[in-house]
Amino acid sequence: GENVEQHPSTLSVQEGDSAVIKCTYSDSASNYFPWYKQELGKGPQLIIDIRSNVGEKKDQRIAVTLNKTAKHFSLHITETQPEDSAVYFCAARGSYIPTFGRGTSLIVHP
Amino acid sequence: DTEVTQTPKHLVMGMTNKKSLKCEQHMGHRAMYWYKQKAKKPPELMFVYSYEKLSINESVPSRFSPECPNSSLLNLHLHALQPEDSALYLCASSQAGSPATNEKLFFGSGTQLSVL
């Protein structure tokens, strides 16, 4: 089955800095890569996703890049704000249910 | 309405109790899911209902019993749980009925369960 590795487990930045979270996957058949943000006391919420036929996707301050050859994808958050503090999960889906990475706790210091 | 609503938000139960968790969505989604999430861990899939029929059971112990009364409702019946079952239980839904084609998952806020 699919195996998703996510790094780092914790990321601490100053407000206004950029943050990058990286994931690798094992199943070359995976074709959909969502990112979820989970705030304290809430369920995960989809923030951006990318399909395997696209190399990059942007939505305001967040962007995701995908390198299918290397089997890795990354989340980029620019101009971070305190409200970006949360746990972020990457996931990869092939022919089955998405497999989640272990999560990254992002802390944005004012 | 783009929400998945879960009740109750918190639940404390003893090992001999029977309780139920409830999930509701009115987005017309045809697949619904139960996930279990331990602190600082990713969600773990438990069950998937597709067109109101159980399509995936990830080898979950029988003390957890899912039920899908209709296309908008999903229940999880709990009986004789163990302390290690304490966790956040998340419900999710997705538009298409086939898990193989589903993409976007919409999660509820979860039920924080404590088993004493």
Description of the molecule:
The complex is a heterodimer of chains A (about 110) and B (about 120). Chain A has about 110 residues and is mostly beta strands. Chain A has strands at about 5, 10-15, 20-25, 30-40, 45-50, 55-60, 60-65, 70-75, 85-90, 100, 105-110. In chain A, strands 2, 4, 5, 9, 10 and 11 form a 6-stranded mixed β-sheet that branches. In chain A, β7 (about 60-65) and β8 form a beta hairpin. The termini of chain A are far apart. Chain B has about 120 residues and is an all-beta fold. Chain B contains no helices and 11 strands. Chain B has strands at about 5, 10-15, 20-25, 30-35, 45-50, 55, 65-70, 75-80, 85-95, 105, 110-115. The interface of A and B includes residues 34, 45, 93 and 102 of A.
Given the helix and strand composition of chain A, which structural class is it?
A: mainly beta
Count of alpha and pi helical runs of chain A: 0
Distance between the termini of chain B: 36 Å
Pair of chains with the largest interface and how many residues each contributes: A-B, 22 and 22 residues
Strand content of chain B: over 45%
